Structures are given as structure tokens and as C-alpha cells.
Amino acid sequence: MNEETKSIHEFDFKLICEYYSGMKRQGPGSPEATIKALSFIDNLTNESRIADIGCGTGGQTMVMACHTPGHITGIDLFSTFIDLFNINANKLNFQDRINGMVGSMDNLPFQHEELDLIWSEGAIYNIGFERGLNEWRKFLKTGGYIAVSEASWFTEERPVEIDEFWKDAYPEIDTIPNKVAQMQKAEYIPIASFVLPENCWTEHFYIPQIPAQKNFLKKYSGNKAAEELIANQRHEAELYYRYKDFYGYVFYIGKKI
Ligand code: SAH
């Protein structure tokens, strides 16, 4: 990568981080969906070790902490998100139970069989669903759980426009039965899967972005990269509203055997 492209990339990165730092969540989800997914997980105690991978600023982590015992380590690639994550944990007085760390999901800082629960909302796609399930398994104790949310097709067939969009954005997107089969193949018992309700995309994700986008464009008026970023976000939201019968996020919960 030459210096010029590198600097453009770094700037884009910063812009994306800044844009999402202002949001409660960096992906589709809701407190209710987090709590529902947690309801499938038993045997957690004050001694339990939980990892939240690709935690962002910790919207879902704080909800988990209110509804589970145990210690949660949040891991995210971006230090801006981790700084906000730790500020959020302190605000809620969770500093003794929640710890945010900068790290990458392809090089996790855990011991083998250390964890009781691996959580990851809207983030496993960064490493790929199958690779994440397979590589993270060793960090779980036998009988431990994994709970991840992942973009999935609702039907066998879909309109070309949305098919092409996703095949470009994330070729590993697949149908729910295929994802469940991948979970079983990775040696987890598929305990549950459920489709995240539409409000996880609307009320909790796209709608809060509308005022944020206006402010962002004002602040970066005339900045091509910022304009492009917002145009992409808006395009993604439009596609969702048009094609939401064909895809969405699905929570997959598995138990290591
Ligand atoms: N779980 C949060 C954030 C989801 S967005 C929520 O549901 O709101 C995806 C997150 O994955 C972002 O915070 C991004 O910074 C993080 N991420 C991307 N690549 C990563 C990697 N290789 N390792 C760890 N985190 C990563």
C-alpha cells in the first residue's frame, strides 16, 4: 500500500470510528434480544468467565452484566471503542466485573478452556462464522456456550439486487438451516436460534443514525470520504427497508460438547 492510499485509509478508519462512537450500538441488536439470547444459557455463577468479542462501545455488554453473574472481558480492534466501553462500565459501576481490552478476534488472549461463555453480536463476520466457531471453541470449557448474531438469509431465493449486495459485502451469508448445520459441524449442540425482530434494525440501529448523519455531514461538509460514508450507510438502510423479508440478523446459541 503506498503512503497516499494508506493515509486515505487511515482517515476513513477514523471517520468510521467517530461516526459509530456516537451510537449506543455499532450493529443491529436490542436489550430485549440480548436478554432473550441469555435466557438459553444456564450455569453461570459469580466465578464465570465471559468474553464479548467485537464488543464495540459495549451496548450489549452492559445489558449482559445487568442480567448475568460473572466477569466479562470485552475485546475490540478499535481503541476508541474500548475507551468508551470502559467509561460506560465505570458509569454503571461495573468496573470490577467488566474489562475492555484492545485485541483482535483472530488472536484472542484467552487460555484453553478458560471461558464459560463466548458472546459476539454482529461481529463474527469479521473473521467469518465458521472460522470463528471453530477457532474460538478451544477457549470454552466443555459445557460452555457460544452465542453469536449473524446476517442470514430467510429464504432459499431472493431478488438479484440484495443477493449481489450481500455476496459482495459478506459472501458467507447463508440460510438459517445451513448456519445451524455449520454450528453442529463445529461440534456445538445447536441449542437455539432466533431471528432478531425488526426493531433491532430500525429503532435501535438505523433510526438513531438519521440525526447523527445530519450532524456528521455538517461537521465534515465538503469532505468526500465523509459524504461517501454517509451515502453508504443510507444505501444500506434503504436496502434493509426494501428487502427485510429476505434477510436479517439471527442469534445462534451453541453448547460445546
Ligand atoms: N457488538 C457490538 C459491535 C458490533 S460492530 C454491537 O452489537 O453493537 C462489529 C465490531 O467488531 C466493531 O466494534 C469492530 O470494531 C469490531 N471488529 C472488527 N474487526 C475486529 C477484529 N478483528 N477483532 C476484534 N474486533 C473487531
Second-tier CATH architecture: 3-Layer(aba) Sandwich
CATH topology: Rossmann fold
Q: Regions with pLDDT < 50 over 5+ consecutive residues?
A: 1-6
Q: Give the domain tally.
A: 1
Main β-sheet description: 8 strands, mixed
Q: How would you describe the oligomerization state of the chains in this entry?
A: single chain
Strand composition percent: 15-25%
Instruction: Give the tally of β-strands.
Output: 8
Proportion of residues in helical segments: 40-55%
Description:
- With 257 residues, the protein is of the alpha/beta class.
- It has one domain: Rossmann fold (3-Layer(aba) Sandwich), CATH 3.40.50.
- It contains 9 helices and 8 strands.
- Strands 1, 2, 3, 4, 5, 6, 7 and 8 form an 8-stranded mixed β-sheet that branches.
- Helix 2 packs across helix 3 and helix 8 runs antiparallel to helix 9.
- The site of S-adenosyl-L-homocysteine (SAH) has 21 residues, from helix 3 and strand 2.
Q: What descriptive keywords fit this protein?
A:
single chain; 257 residues; alpha/beta; Rossmann fold; 9 helices; 8 strands; globular; disordered N terminus; binds S-adenosyl-L-homocysteine
Task: Map the helices and strands.
Blueprint: H1 3-21, H2 31-38, E1 49-53, H3 59-67, E2 71-76, H4 79-91, E3 98-102, E4 115-120, H5 129-136, E5 140-153, H6 160-169, E6 174-175, H7 176-185, E7 188-195, H8 202-219, H9 224-243, E8 247-256
Parallel strand pairs: 1-2, 1-4, 2-3, 4-5, 5-6
Antiparallel strand pairs: 5-8, 7-8
Bound molecules: S-adenosyl-L-homocysteine.
Residues 25-27, 29, 54-56, 59-60, 75-78, 81, 104-106, 121-123, 126 line the site of S-adenosyl-L-homocysteine (SAH).
